[in-house]
Amino acid sequence: MNHKVAIVVGGTGGVGSLVTLGLAEAGHDIALIYHAADDKAVQLKSRIEAAGRRCMVVKADASDPVAVARFVGAARDAFGRIDVLVNTQGCTHELRLLHESPVDDLRRTVDVELMSVLYCCQAVVPTMIHQKQGRIVTIGADAGKVGSSAEAASAAARGGVIALSKGLAREVASYGITVNVVCPGPIETELFQRNSGQGTITAKLSAAMVKATPMKRLARPEEVADMVIYLATGQGSSFVTGQAISISGGLTMC
User: Fold this and answer.
1) Structure pTM?
2) Helix axes 103-110, 152-172, angle to 10 degrees
């Protein structure tokens, strides 16, 4: 039986691993590209294969267009098709004002959070056009809609992802391809802990975010993953494209 095939970029993180497993449970073979977390990648591969799905795992830098093209080509050759692309990659960065941020850090943030998404979309679209169907979903951030102090580069990159996805959605809609962005507010993940600091700083920042959120808590990783899987696989999402959907408990409403 030929299963549908999903490429997941950065699929070893807190939300990414849930997305990867969820897509496998929904009947997709998985091609996973990751940059770190070797142990998690091995564990995910084992779990997916134990569930009867095929899984291809490659360690590479998704901000390298040559590496991305090579990976996507290998996935297409191995599985024969590409039905879904999910971009879950994110960048660890300190909270710093723009004028205090090293240029190399700014460049790396934009490379990981915007350019890698562009390269991955560019690489899969020809196959999806040939198939006349496909789903592309990127995990962005509400900061891409409204900005965020002390992480201007990340907000700019996430805003770029939204614009990229809307433009691409218009380009490929006639081929039956949908393109959407899931925009979480703060999520209870290891990446949030690393980016916001440790101990008292994290506690104060989390408390401030909770206070500002109408639903009075942070998002849970599974809530973000569920929306991604819905957009990537759900029958009810087949007419949804070019959207940036917030998962923030009402922290932003736009």
Assistant:
1) 0.92
2) 20
Give burial (CB, 10 Å; 0-12/13-18/19+) of 47.
middle
CATH superfamily, domain 5-186+221-247, is NAD(P)-binding Rossmann-like Domain (3.40.50.720)
Cβ-Cβ contacts under 8 Å for 249 (sequence gap 6 or more): 185, 213, 214, 215, 216, 217, 218, 219
Band the pLDDT of 93: cuts 50, 70, 90.
Answer: confident
Q: Residue 135 and residue 19: Cα distance in Å, rounded?
A: 14
Burial of residue 125 (CB within 10 Å: 0-12, 13-18, 19+) is buried
Strand partners, 31: 7, 56
Q: Which residue has the higher pLDDT, 50 or 235?
A: 50
Please give the single-letter amino acid code of residue 85.
Answer: L
Place of tokens 């134990």: 50
Q: What is the largest CA-CA distance in the chain?
A: 55
